[in-house]
Every structure is written in structure tokens, then in C-alpha cells.
Write a structure and sequence with these properties.
This protein has 361 residues and is α/β, with parallel strands linked by helices. The protein contains twelve helices and 14 strands. It binds nicotinamide-adenine-dinucleotide, 3-isopropylmalic acid and manganese (II) ion. Manganese (II) ion binds next to helix 9. Its main location: cytoplasm.
Length: 361
């Protein structure tokens, strides 16, 4: 049966990394006759330029119908002056996540042994690292109301946001995390700021109340400031981490660097039925956009996650993982993961190397 994949390259390096991910997907689609039908649409700044809207109606309709979505990255300085709700980030990406109820964001930070030297931490601190960050993606302070910038009586402006989580929102993301922990090392660390914020006091209470349903999972709780410190001190103590939207955003970028580069961190954003959007954790990287420098591996590994989680295609997903490993074995590196003696390639060169490794399988 045909499956429809919506491809949203977005802005900046989004278009460059997506071209390589699509090469990989096309290759596997042909090799295994997967019957995937790829369609491309505009999102973010590119969509604003073409249609005036960060999430054009056409893109939204295609997204609702798609079996899975692949996203590059959105945003850039060109659109930073627009009102918040119209920007690529809020008007495009966050709206799409929210409308499709993609609340479960899985961000696996895995250190490929070949990249131990590229991590900013000592090899012994990171070797064997395999963490899964489960980030709540459609609630918390990103979406809480009221929000805005208002004028105070004394004439100065005040910015404000609201950090909210309901019990049901906490329960559904915690369930994702407990179940992920069951399939992995059976250790779950819930990250909050329950010493200060009521919303996360409730978070801690609800997560704790679910522990009895997962007796095999060892549940712990940690304040977010300590969690940030522990991630760089001794990251291998973690198996699965679960946290809210903003803390998850920040901790996953920190975790990314443990793996050598943010260019190595894929993600899956899933709804309650495992329908999802797949995207690298990094942004549109305006500083290197258009220079054939971006690492496409996070996006290519996001393709593997899509095949596995939304399409149930384990073999081609395994092929991608093995091809990435083989490319790294060969010492092929983009600039962000380069170390001495390796072969430096650009975005397209890295995509070609992955295809060559797939062909050689
Ligand atoms: P960024 O992730 O785009 O870049 C941070 C740094 O990491 C930059 O130095 C960049 O060159 C580097 N980097 C990122 N991805 C890389 C890759 N694949 N290969 C090599 N180096 C890479 O974050 P930023 O600079 O804070 O944000 C830039 C824009 O991207 C902003 O408009 C932001 O809102 C947007 N953004 C979008 C997403 C998304 O679409 N999912 C995620 C994060 C940021
Ligand atoms: C991410 C990004 C987004 C987020 C931005 C671009 C809205 O940083 O996917 O990590 O904060 O969720
Ligand atoms: Mn982020």
C-alpha cells in the first residue's frame, strides 16, 4: 500500500540536509519497493516568502493526510522581525506540532564510538553514551496562555508567559517515557523544577503516581539545573530522561554536544498513534547555510526513525544505521565532527558517502 511522506525542507541548511535525506529515502524506496510517495511542500520562512504564511493551507492539508512528515529546519534572521505569531518558528513549526498533537518528542543522544574524539568531553566520560530524552512538545511554557508583551502603568513594557501542564498532559508524556524505559535500560529520570514551580510539583507528583504501573522501571527525579550539570559531569548515569517542553529543548542541545555535534541528533515527534514528524534537533544554521558545510546525518538518522516508528520498516532503518556507522568507520566527516586525519566532506559528499555505504551492503 502506498504511504505518503510529506517533505518539508524549510529554511537555511534545511534545504541542503533534506536533499541528502531524500536521496537516502529514494534509494531505500527503490531497493525494497517500499511504495513511499514523497511530496514536498513549503514551511517556515520559505513559505512566508512565497505565500505570506509560515504554514500555508496547502502544507497543512498535506500534513494532516501524510503517513509521516520529514522536516529540515525553519527560521532565520530574515524573518526575525515579524510579529511572533507570524514567524517561521511559532507560525510554522510550533503550529504544526500543536495542530497535529505531536506531543511525544524522542531525542536519542547516542555516541558513535568513532566520534569519541569529536565530543567536547573526555572519551572515557562519553564512550558508550546512549540516552533517550523524552520531551513534551505541545504544552508547557511554549503554549501556555496568557502570554504577550504588555504595557505597565509606569509606561515600561513587561513580557510574560505562562507555564502550565494538566494532569492528562503529564500522564501521556510520562507513559511514553515509562514505555520507552521498559524497552531500554529500565531507568527513568524525570526532570523538573519542583523546588520552585508549582506546575512541576504537579509534574513530579503525577509521574511518581504512575511508577506503581511500571514496577520494573527505576524512577528518579532531578531538578533541571542539576540535570544540566550531571549531563556534562557523568552523562552515562542516564538511560531515559523525561521532561517538559522548554527544559527538554535545552537539555537535548546539551546532550547533542556529548555525541560530537548537534548535527548528529535526530528526533521523532509522535502523536498518540505514533504518527509523526521527524526532524533533526538542530536549526537552520544561518551561519553555514548555502555553503555545503552542514552535517546531514541527523536528518538521515531521522529518516531511520521515521521508517522504524511510523512505518514499521525495521530493515531499511537498520540499513541506514549501519551505513552511517560504516561512513564514520571510513573516517568521512563533515566539519562539525572533523578530527585530525579524517577525510573532510561537505553536505552532499556526506550524503553520497551514505548512499555508497548503502550500495555496498
Ligand atoms: P542552530 O541549531 O541552527 O545552530 C547552532 C549552531 O550549530 C550553529 O553554529 C550552526 O552552524 C551549528 N549547526 C547546526 N546544525 C548543524 C549541522 N547540521 N551541521 C553542522 N553544524 C550545525 O541554532 P540557532 O543558531 O540558535 O538558530 C538558527 C535558526 O534556526 C533560528 O531561526 C532558530 O529559531 C531556528 N531553529 C529551528 C529549529 C527547527 O526548525 N527545528 C531548531 C532550532 C533552531
Ligand atoms: C527545536 C527548536 C524549536 C523548539 C524552535 C525552533 C521553535 O529549538 O526543535 O529544538 O524550541 O522546539
Ligand atoms: Mn531546540
Amino acid at each position: 500500500m502506498t504511504k505518503n511522506i510529506l517533505v518539508l525542507p524549510g529554511d537555511g541548511i534545511g534545504t541542503e540536509i533534506m536533499a541528502e535525506a531524500v536521496k537516502v529515502l529514494d534509494f531505500l524506496n527503490d531497493k525494497y519497493s517500499l511504495g513511499l510517495n514523497l511530496e514536498e511542500a513549503l514551511l517556515g520562512g520559505a513559505a512566508i516568502d512565497a505565500t505570506g504564511k509560515a504554514l500555508p493551507d496547502n502544507t497543512f492539508e498535506l500534513a494532516k493526510k501524510a503517513d509521516a512528515i520529514l522536516l529540515g529546519a525553519v527560521g532565520g534572521p530574515k524573518w526575525d522581525k515579524l510579529p511572533p505569531a507570524d514567524r517561521p518558528e511559532k507560525g510554522g513549526l510550533l503550529r504544526l506540532r500543536s495542530e497535529l498533537q505531536l506531543f511525544g518528542n524522542l531525542r536519542p543522544a547516542i555516541l558513535y564510538p568513532q566520534l569519541a574524539g569529536a565530543s567536547s568531553l573526555k572519551p572515557e566520560v562519553v564512550s558508550g553514551l546512549d540516552i533517550l530524552i523524552v520531551r513534551e512538545l505541545t504544552g508547557g511554557i511554549y503554549f501556555g496562555e496568557p502570554r504577550g508583551i504588555r504595557e505597565l502603568e509606569n509606561g515600561e513594557r513587561q513580557g510574560y508567559n505562562t507555564y502550565v501542564y494538566s494532569e492528562s498532559e503529564i500522564r501521556r508524556i510520562a507513559k511514553v517515557a515509562f514505555e520507552a524505559a521498559m524497552k531500554r535500560g529500565k531507568r527513568l529520570c524525570s526532570v523538573d523544577k519542583a523546588n520552585v514551580l508549582e506546575v512541576t510539583m504537579l509534574w513530579r507528583e503525577v509521574v511518581q503516581s504512575m511508577a506503581a504501573d511500571y514496577p520494573e522501571v527505576e524512577l528518579s527525579h532531578m531538578y533541571v539545573d542539576n540535570a544540566a550539570m550531571q549531563l556534562v559531569r557523568a552523562p552515562k548515569q542516564f538511560d531515559v530522561m523525561v521532561t517538559g517542553n522548554m527544559f527538554g529543548d535545552i537539555l537535548s542541545d546539551a546532550a547533542a554536544m556529548l555525541t560530537g555535534s548537534i548535527g548528529m541528533l535526530p528526533s521523532a515527534s509522535l502523536d498518540i498513534n505514533n504518527r509523526g514528524m521527524y526532524e533533526p534537533c538542530h536549526g537552520s544554521a544561518p551561519d553555514i547555510a548555502g555553503q555545503d558545510k552542514a552535517n546531514p546525518l541527523a536528518t538521515i538518522m531521522s529518516v531511520a526513525m521515521m521508517l522504524r516508528y511510523s512505518l514499521g520498516l525495521e530493515q531499511p532503518a537498520n540499513d541506514i544505521d549501519a551505513a552511517v556507522s560504516s561512513v564514520l568507520d571510513q573516517g568521512i566527516r563533515t566539519g562539525d565532527i572533523y578530527s585530525e586525519g579524517c577525510k573532510l566532506v561537505g553536505t552532499a559528499g556526506m550524503g553520497d558517502a551514505v548512499i555508497a555505504a548503502l550500495r555496498a551492503q
